[in-house]
Design goal:
This protein is an alpha+beta fold. Helices cover 34% and strands 23% of the residues. It has eleven helices and eleven strands. A seven-stranded mixed beta sheet has the order 5-6-7-8-9-11-10. The longest helix is centred in the N-terminal third of the chain and has 18 residues, at 69-86. The termini are far apart.
């Protein structure tokens, strides 16, 4: 598997953290064989493994040559962010000029002009067009990348973010009646692996939360097991952590099934509750104009 290919001595937390930092944060794919991954996923795994094996200096020839140019650009931004965060030295040898603004290198050498210079490049913006969509139609495009399972509630409201006409991020929201008043709850959020690592998933989740937040007096909740999302929200001023990371298996069901280990195991497996999760409540600004435009 991908995890097994990393240097011995690295903990699972270190490996998954490194994979997430370069934009490969799809837990289901961490346990898959390398050869079944897409070119973009293999590219990010190769970089993560290289950073682990060459902590002093990593040189990559033919950088981004085997991937789609959009994937190359977004991947370059994620890798640059990871390299700087880890304070490592990284040299990319490439024949493509379209990645320069995304990679934001400290130094650039162009053999064709014999130019060696220190440039200050600004990363281009990633403009996403948001639409309310049919969950049944669009969820199959994202389901295989979700860390929990491939199911989605029939009553969920679904939204997709499009980049250059391509659907790259998905969020579904559920209405949850309760004695204290109806709540909104984030049901699914998935960013396509080719576009992970630059904050698109978190930004899209924040945007949808801002649309629902305060709508007709309701508030917005989210429970997630994604390590990168938990870490981001724990630092963010837009979210309050209402439950620290812990196993979310219901205590009442634990007591009821204590005498039946097999039943307990099946119950936890079926509901996906044998996971470490954290709960959050959105406390950021409201976006009533966007909510109205999306029909919320």
């Amino acid at each position: 598997t991908i995890v097994d290919s990393f240097p011995k001595g690295m903990s699972i937390k270190e490996i998954t953290g490194l994979l997430s930092s370069v934009g490969f944060s799809s837990p289901p794919n961490w346990l898959r064989p390398y050869h079944v991954l897409s070119n973009g996923e293999q590219f990010r795994v190769d970089i993560a493994r290289g950073l682990a094996e060459s902590p002093d200096l990593l040189v990559v020839d033919e950088f981004t040559s085997v991937v789609d140019r959009t994937v190359a650009q977004v991947g370059s931004a994620a890798i640059a962010k990871a390299v700087r965060k880890r304070n490592q030295k990284f040299v990319a040898v490439a024949c493509h000029y379209d990645i320069l603004e995304w990679l934001q290198p400290d130094w650039i050498y162009d053999p064709s002009t014999n130019r060696f210079a220190r440039d200050c490049l600004q990363r281009p913006p990633i403009n996403i067009h948001v639409q309310r969509v049919s969950g049944k139609k669009y969820w199959p495009l994202f389901s295989k990348f979700h860390y929990l399972n491939r199911d989605i509630h029939n009553g969920a409201s679904a939204f997709v973010g499009f980049y250059n006409g391509r659907p790259i991020v998905f969020t579904a929201v559920l209405t949850m009646p309760c004695p204290q008043g109806t709540r909104w709850k984030e049901h699914r959020t998935v960013c396509h692996p080719d576009f992970q690592g630059v904050g698109i998933g978190n930004a899209f989740s924040n945007f949808i939360a801002s649309c629902f937040h305060g709508t007709r007096g309701r508030y917005y909740l989210s429970v997630t097991a994604n390590p990168a999302m938990v870490a981001y929200r724990a630092r963010s001023k837009l979210w309050n952590m209402t439950r620290k990371p812990q196993n979310n298996c219901d205590q009442r069901v634990r007591r009821q099934t204590k005498a039946n280990t097999e039943a307990m195991t099946q119950w936890r497996k079926a509901l996906g509750t044998d996971r470490i999760t954290a709960s959050f409540r959105y406390c950021g600004p409201r976006n009533p104009a966007a909510a109205a435009a999306l029909g919320i």
